[in-house]
Amino acid sequence: METKILAIDDNSISLAVKLINDGELVGMPTETVYGLGASGLNPDAVKKIFTAKGRPSDNPLIAHVHKDYDITNLVHITQNYVYDLIKEFMPGPLTLVLNSKGVVCSEAVCGGDTLAVRMPSHAGCQKFLKAVNLPIVAPSANLSKHTSPTTAKYVYDDLNGKIPLILDGGKCSGGIESTVLDVTTKTPRILRAGLITKEMIESVVGRCEYASHSEGDKVRSPGVKYAHYQPRCETALYEFNDLDSAIFRYEKEVAKNKTPYIMCPTFVAENFKGKNLLLLGETELEIAFNLYDKLLEGEKKADIIIAIAMPSETGVYAGIMNRLRKSCG
How far apart are CA 233 and CA 100, in angstroms? Predict the structure, then answer.
């Protein structure tokens, strides 16, 4: 199969809509990472996502819809605070897990009774979703467990020959996947941390919790059960207050004739003068924006990426640490 990368315009969107209606897959940009989309109404198309990615069959997908789509066609809204969250954060990097009406096929939700729904804010993605006017179910557009793609080229590197089209919407502005929030109960629960933080959610609904995930739990969200986001090289993760151990590990790898790189926030780079560095940036949003790019850059340069943890786990740092533990922990 030939894989085309086309800039988003009326012609490429018309082709993407045709492919979706024909049961094919389309790579599409969002504001967070690129997704691998299929019609959520077509079980055979959804199965192609799992095959193309090598994705475990019990890892559910998120349904993406345009900003004017009535999500009550797909889900039951049982908590009034959900409307406040939609008004405040959607379109945007927030995914809501709600009770499914069964419109989106069972294959997409892995047999579960809930559906994760989001409205990406990326203008090109909105244009595509408006044109197709269907729930497009999509995980990140990469091989399973590999680092998520933030450009069309990264999608092509993983999925060339497996899908017919990648809509090129430029580099994603967010950098890590959406926050996933279970809103089926009185108190919303964060299933996966992201750019919409616990503090931001609490400013709207008053109270929010992090969900705990136990062995044997039914998975309601992607990104909670398996190792994810991993570069194709060795990795190690060191605490923010244990930089000496990271330096010791670096020197140990050099002594073995290996090529290590330290991946860290720019504000601690002074501690690693003269060493190979992958600099993530200064602020939480810069670090989130650069994280996957630096992991993908590092896998091409390094025998081992030595990652430094964030100084806290509040705000966006919570989402960054979630990704660091799954990619480098």
Answer: 39
Tokens of 111: 């047999």
CATH 3.40.50.11030 fits 234-328, yes or no: yes
Q: Is the pLDDT of residue 177 over 90?
A: yes
Which residues lie closer than 8 Å to 75 by C-beta, 6 or more apart? Answer: 98, 99, 100, 101, 115, 117
User: What whole-number distance in Å separates Cα of residue 86 and Cα of residue 71?
Assistant: 11
143 vs 154: CA distance, rounded Å: 11
* Spatial distance between the Cα atoms of 235 and 295, rounded to a whole number of angstroms: 10
What's the whole-model pTM score? 0.93
CB 195 within 8 A of CB 174: yes
Give the whole-angstrom CA distance, residue 151 versus residue 149.
6
Q: Residue 42 is encoded by which pair of tokens?
A: 């077509």
Q: Which residues pair with 6 in a beta bridge?
A: 167
Q: Tokens for 212?
A: 């705990």
Domain definitions of the chain by residue range: 4-210, 234-328
Q: Does domain 4-210 have CATH number 3.40.190.10?
A: no
State the Cα–Cα distance between residues 138 and 37, nearest whole angstrom: 4
pLDDT tens track for 249-285: 999 999 999 999 999 999 999 999 999 999 999 999 9
Using the Cα atoms of residue 11, residue 39, residue 32 and residue 126 in order, give the sign of their dihedral: positive
